[in-house]
Specification:
This protein is of the alpha+beta class. The chain has one domain (2-113): Nuclear Transport Factor 2, Chain: A (Roll). Helices cover 22% and strands 37% of the residues. The chain is built from 2 helices and 5 strands, in the order E-E-H-H-E-E-E. The strands form 2 sheets. The protein has a 3-stranded antiparallel β-sheet. It is globular. This is DUF2634 domain-containing protein. It comes from Paenibacillus yonginensis. InterPro entries: Sheath_initiator.
């Protein structure tokens, strides 16, 4: 599959990407989409309610991240999810290791979830 490359701020780069880079970008998009936000598929995305508030449950957040990543049909398994919470900046950065249908390993170390 091929896609236009998106920069970190979401702007289009007008560069065509494919393979693992394109799959990683699709995973990043799923994690950046709040469940119910996309009117064409309201079930797509990440349940952000689990990431808000003071009493957060990291196990539930890990499960939600894995579930969201598996919405990308080319991801066959999620081996690990890591969370880094910056309470002062009120941000959460997630990393994950997943396997694609072709057996390729997808590794992303920094995806901001619910930043702001």
């Amino acid at each position: 599959m091929e896609s236009l490359k998106l920069e970190a701020d979401g702007d289009v780069s007008f560069e065509i990407i494919s393979g693992q880079e394109e799959l990683a970008q699709c995973c990043r998009i799923v994690l950046g989409t709040k469940t119910g936000e996309w009117f064409l598929n309201p079930d797509s995305g990440l349940d952000y309610s689990l990431f808000l508030g003071k009493d957060i449950n990291e196990t539930q957040m890990n499960d939600a991240l894995s579930t969201a990543l598996l919405q990308e049909e080319r991801i066959t398994s999620v081996e690990s999810v890591s969370l880094s919470i910056d309470r002062k900046a009120r941000t959460l950065t997630a990393g994950f290791k997943a396997t694609g249908m072709d057996g390729a390993e997808i590794l992303l170390e920094e995806v901001e979830v619910g930043a702001g």
